[in-house]
Amino acid sequence: ADPERLLITGGSAGGFTVLAALAFHHTFRAGASHFGVADLAALARDTHKFESRYLDRLIGPYPERADLYQARSPLYHAHQITCPVIFFQGLEDKVVPPAQSEAMYEALRARGIRTEYVPFPGEQHGFRKAENIITAIERELAFYGEVLGFTPAQ
After folding, report:
1. How far apart are CA 118 and CA 90, in angstroms?
2. What's the CA gap between 135 and 76, in Å, rounded?
3. How far apart are CA 12 and CA 2, in angstroms?
4. Integer-rounded Cα radius of gyration of the chain
5. Is the bond leading into 3 cis (omega within 30 degrees of zero)?
């Protein structure tokens, strides 16, 4: 792979992986986070009941290990992200609420990092409407084209 053209994309926990990779490493030229986790403590507090204790096994009990939640949350390390990032978010998402993507987007925008936020009204955790899936794919490719200097085929 061309190290100057590496990109990273993922959704939900994969979106967390995108944001963590960009916050803690400088390997990628750009990233796309689809309904990704930016703040682990907020996820532990705000997600729906089914997912509410999910992170206890992965990180530690919350709030007792709030230090680990903050240390591993991309939002608290957004100042280390130096490459463009696009965010895709369902506005009815109860698993990873829109505030996660919105906070990360604002943190990057405030620093002048190339970023974009694409909200989808009526969508939840993952996109189900065909037109929104198409929009997300096309917008992600166009974003990469802008970053890497190519025009996607129509």
Report:
1. 9
2. 30
3. 27
4. 15
5. no
Domain borders along the chain are: 7-148
Q: What is the pTM of this model?
A: 0.94
Domain 7-148: CATH superfamily, name plus number = Alpha/Beta hydrolase fold, catalytic domain (3.40.50.1820)
Cα 9 to Cα 134: distance, rounded to the nearest angstrom: 16
CB-facing half-sphere around the CA of 93: CA atoms within 13 A: 26
Q: Does residue 102 contact residue 65 with C-beta atoms inside 8 Å?
A: no
Question: pLDDT by residue (tens digit) across 106-141?
Answer: 999 999 999 999 999 999 999 999 999 999 999 999
Give residue-wise pLDDT tens across range 57-110.
788 898 999 999 999 999 999 999 999 999 999 999 999 999 999 999 999 999
Q: Residue 90 carries which side chain, given as an amino acid letter?
A: G
Spatial neighbors of 23 by CB under 8 A, at least 6 apart, are: 74, 77, 78, 80, 81
